[in-house]
Design the sequence.
């Protein structure tokens, strides 16, 4: 029998959890199955999940197909109805070793109920799953899961449950273990990272965790934070940005829009000026810091003037990396009942946002020319700077190494060294 085939769709947290599932499945001796870890962030993500399931079923005839992840959690019936699917497993169940111990590929069909999806809102803890990292260069550590907020466009809380945190001691122990394995960079990841600690004794904040990691793992060269909600940035996080060179100068911000009325209709907790102020404050504390951001184009009721406010946010915040999402209605969310923006207008606005993002990236790349950067190699000819900017080489480099290079050019997307 051959080892199970895993496919991951969606975010870095999903990728992290796939690695944890791989280790649990391997420990359970599971063979010959296909496991698809789905995303539910947009209707398009669910469509792609169905497409991927059909493709993998064709490529692995006769193999049991197990579907899990956020789309499986939020709409299990969609996947249970697919002839290709053998089992649908919820987001909590997929992270339990006993789930995989009970699944043995040869006897999978008919062994138990097809759908194993419990109420994710009843889950109170997130375990610190110990995995060896991805590849040989960068390790991701899940410190938080779920979300207590209910943005009107978002289905993810119903796929991930309420916010819950991994205790700081567990996080530090895992990072020490990864450092001992030779990783030079660790990325803290979660669904709503800045809510970390709210459910722990004493209600510590994300900045407390960051400072504790840097203090207790002094030989870790690089610590990176994934996406944050800037309105929840605490004093210790800002202190870390200002004083800790090992905390990388790149933050990805969950902004979503740049117009106050749209932000209110999204049920976001910040206004336009809050986002601008955060970027200005962080840049004063850490000159050279760069920001990525998620922005939705064509949210219901968005007028052209409202969209222009989002477009101007790219310059007003000094954004460098843009993730643009054309609005996609998710059944069961309040925004799906709001008056829609016509499809062609959404497409046009997304294209204009992407063009603004491309121009911002080129400005950043231009500013790097002639600079010396300490890069982490991800492959023989690919690395990333402290700012998470891709760098390509014309010669092979050892993977997983920190190398000082001179930036000599760029191709509009990547630096050259």
Sequence:
């Amino acid at each position: 029998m051959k080892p199970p085939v895993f496919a991951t769709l969606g975010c870095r947290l999903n990728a992290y959890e796939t690695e944890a599932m791989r280790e649990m499945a391997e420990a359970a001796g599971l063979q010959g199955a296909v496991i698809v870890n789905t995303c539910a962030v947009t209707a398009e993500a669910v469509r792609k999940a169905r497409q991927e399931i059909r493709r993998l079923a064709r490529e692995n005839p006769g193999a049991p197909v197990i579907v899990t992840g956020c789309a499986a959690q939020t709409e299990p019936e969609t996947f249970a109805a697919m002839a290709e699917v053998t089992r649908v497993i919820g987001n909590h169940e997929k992270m339990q070793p006993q789930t995989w111990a009970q699944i043995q590929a040869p006897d999978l069909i008919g062994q138990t109920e097809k759908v194993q999806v419990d109420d994710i809102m009843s889950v109170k803890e997130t375990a610190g799953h110990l995995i060896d990292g991805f590849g040989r260069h960068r390790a991701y550590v899940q410190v938080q899961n779920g979300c207590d907020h209910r943005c009107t466009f978002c289905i993810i809380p119903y796929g991930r449950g309420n916010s819950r945190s991994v205790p700081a001691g567990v996080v530090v122990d895992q990072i020490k273990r990864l450092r001992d394995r030779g990783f030079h960079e660790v990325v803290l990841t979660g669904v709503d990272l800045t809510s970390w600690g709210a459910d722990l004794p004493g209600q510590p904040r994300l900045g407390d965790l960051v400072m504790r990691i840097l203090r207790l793992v002094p030989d870790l060269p690089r610590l990176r934070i994934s996406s944050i909600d800037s309105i929840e940035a605490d004093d210790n996080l800002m202190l870390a940005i200002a004083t800790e060179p090992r905390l990388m100068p790149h933050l990805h911000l969950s902004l979503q829009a740049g117009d106050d009325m749209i932000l209110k209709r999204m049920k976001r907790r910040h206004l336009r000026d809050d986002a601008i102020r955060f970027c200005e404050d962080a840049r004063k504390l850490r000159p050279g810091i760069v920001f990525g951001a998620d922005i939705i184009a064509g949210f219901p009721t968005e007028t052209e003037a409202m969209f222009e406010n989002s477009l101007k946010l790219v310059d007003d915040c000094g954004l460098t990396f843009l993730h643009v999402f054309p609005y996609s209605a998710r059944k069961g969310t309040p925004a799906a009942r709001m008056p829609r923006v016509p499809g062609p207008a959404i497409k046009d606005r997304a294209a204009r946002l992407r063009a603004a993002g491309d121009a911002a990236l080129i400005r950043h790349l231009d500013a790097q020319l002639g600079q010396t950067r300490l890069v982490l190699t991800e492959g023989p000819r690919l690395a990333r700077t402290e700012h998470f900017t891709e760098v390509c080489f014309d010669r092979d480099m050892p993977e997983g190494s920190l190398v000082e290079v001179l930036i000599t050019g760029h191709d509009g997307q990547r630096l050259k060294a």
